[in-house]
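Attaching the record inline, Q. Sequence:
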Amino acid sequence: MRQLYTARLATKLLLSDVAQCFHLEFAVDELPEFAFKAGQFVSCVADDPKTGKQQTRAYSIASAPRENMFDICVNRVEGGFFSNLLCDLEEGDTLKFHGAHGLFTLRQPPVDSVFIATGTGIAPMRGFAQWLFPEDGPNRSEGKDVWLVYGTRYESDIYYQDYFEQLAAKHPNFHYIATLSRGQESWTGQRGYVQEHVARLVATRAEQKVLVGAGDVQPERNPNGPFEIYAYICGLNDMVSASRDRLVGMGWEKKQVVFERDD
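Structure, as predicted:
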């Protein structure tokens, strides 16, 4: 029997009116500290009056650990029990959950990383970014390059855009790419699917590595062996599979590609 905790909604923010996407910040009042690793998820539990059964739904944590708090990012889904329950919560309302769970976490020691996300799959990437580049505390990236490639359909669906743009402006080793598949003519940013941008990014980086290693000065031996870059992928199944297959087809080992499906 998993231990259930009570989460109280402390803050509710509307990220996108068009997509009906909300950022929810919860406090676990019964705990002085809610311990988890960035990238993990919580399982929310509630009784469904229509079926008379208890429903459980997993949501990626959209924050790094901080005291007894955790954040999630949720879209309203027509006919969806849990998505509507969460989107309709008001500040002060409570919810039962268990966790944290999951192995979608940053591998150690830090190496160059590519974060690949679509839709609410951005949630664990926000947790990764907060952990690597905390507002208060030491920078844990150790100077490694981190790319975030975030894809969605429309400009209104780019969640946490201001946060990631500010992070990229502050930290030269954090690179943020937002790409739209159905952007309007007024959109001046990147277009297309994430896997296409990732393929170009990876190919360019590989060429740069070859040039660096071709000189008289030999590069330092990497303690991680072949794993001097990892990809972390979260989003809908088709994108996860396409991105994973693309990287493996480019010669990556499967262990270098860490993924979680956000179906």
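The helical segments are 81-87, 122-132, 161-170, 194-213, 237-249. The longest strand covers residues 5-16.

More tomorrow.
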